[in-house]
Amino acid sequence: MHVPTTSKTLLRDLGADARSPRWAEFISRYRPMMESFLAARYPSLAPDADDLVQETLVALLRALPDYRYVPGEQGSFHNYLTGILRNKAASLLRRREAEAARDAWAAAESAAPPALADEVAAERDEDAWRDAVLQIALRQLLADESVQERTKQVFVRVAVEGEDPAAVAEAFGIERNAVDQMKSRMTRRLRDLVAALDAAPGA
């Protein structure tokens, strides 16, 4: 295929005036090359060739005011043009791949029996609700000024952070039995707070 020679005056005129009548000349010379390039490099995008060419021309329109064509330093102009085409085609392919991945995921999700999917969703909702209520109740319990600070710290380290009760007892200089009692009392209060928060309105 014959690759047209680009004149510096043509590019300069296009860069200087976005409405230049010479755009018709440019398109008539370069559109066949752009279409052939896409057909050879990205045959799967044949239905999108017109859109890709248009997007490339728009990008070129924006870039030309700052573009300086120096053949000895930059090589052929068509390399610059096909570089834009490659970027547009690659971007479209990435979007298509992302869409295909989402469609495959959605298909896998919908393949589960509706009743089972609803049951799993309901269980997840319930777990999330219980966790939210528990976290609120725990914040209320730890903010209760009627509870000694040491008792709160012991409870958090044993019941929340999962530390060994014997190690916690040693850290606070108290008996192991005292740690168990603190944990038991705080657990009952926490359970009451959860029940109160989770009670139905008006119950």
Q: Would you summarize the structure shown here?
A:
The chain is an all-alpha fold. The protein has two domains: 8-109, RNA polymerase sigma factor, region 2, helix turn helix motif (Rna Polymerase Sigma Factor, Chain: A); 114-198, Arc Repressor Mutant, subunit A, CATH 1.10.10.10. It is built from nine helices and no strands.
List keywords for this structure.
203 residues, mainly alpha, Rna Polymerase Sigma Factor, Chain: A, Arc Repressor Mutant, subunit A, disordered N terminus
Q: Mind explaining what this structure looks like?
A:
The chain is an all-alpha fold. Helix content is 77%, strand content 0%. It folds into 2 domains: 8-109, RNA polymerase sigma factor, region 2, helix turn helix motif (Rna Polymerase Sigma Factor, Chain: A); 114-198, Winged helix-like DNA-binding domain superfamily/Winged helix DNA-binding domain (Arc Repressor Mutant, subunit A, Orthogonal Bundle). The chain has helices spanning 8-16, 22-41, 49-63, 71-74, 77-111, 114-143, 149-160, 165-172, 176-198. Helix 7 crosses helix 9 and helix 8 crosses helix 9 (176-198). The longest helix has 35 residues, at 77-111.
Topology:
Elements: H1 8-16, H2 22-41, H3 49-63, H4 71-74, H5 77-111, H6 114-143, H7 149-160, H8 165-172, H9 176-198
Assign the structural class, choosing from mainly alpha, mainly beta, alpha/beta, alpha+beta, or little secondary structure. mainly alpha
**How many domains make up the coordinates?**
2
Uncertain segments: 1-5
Q: What's the end-to-end separation, in Å?
A: 83 Å
Name given to the CATH architecture of the largest domain:
Orthogonal Bundle
Outline the biggest β-sheet: none
State the order of secondary-structure elements, H for helix, E for strand.
HHHHHHHHH
CATH superfamily of the largest domain: RNA polymerase sigma factor, region 2, helix turn helix motif
Which CATH C-level class of the largest domain is it?
Mainly Alpha
